[in-house]
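ok, trying the design again with the full structure, not the truncated one.
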């Protein structure tokens, strides 16, 4: 019965991960959900004894988490000014 439960967990984790990947362009929250899905898939990989799969999914979760953080920073008001090298509140010389 342990194997059946682990298989159901794996199928659920991977289905969730792929669904969130497909929805990433709709909202940045799906990028965070994809990162969580990668973590779940990683745990499945380690639990099932497929450690290379678990390691790769752990790396993908970090990549997705980084993409989420960048997307949140870019969505903040004034983020474009700071990205161009200016300080918040500075006016361009002109």
């Amino acid at each position: 019965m342990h194997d059946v439960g682990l298989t159901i967990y794996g199928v659920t984790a991977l289905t969730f991960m792929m669904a969130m990947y497909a929805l990433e362009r709709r909202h940045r929250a799906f990028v965070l959900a994809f990162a969580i899905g990668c973590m779940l898939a990683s745990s499945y990989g380690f639990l099932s004894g497929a450690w290379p799969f678990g390691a790769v999914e752990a790396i993908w979760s970090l990549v997705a988490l980084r993409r989420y953080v960048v997307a949140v920073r870019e969505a903040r008001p004034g983020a474009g000014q700071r990205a161009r090298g200016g300080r918040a509140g500075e006016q361009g010389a002109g």
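Keeping the full-length input from now on. Residues 2-76 form one domain.
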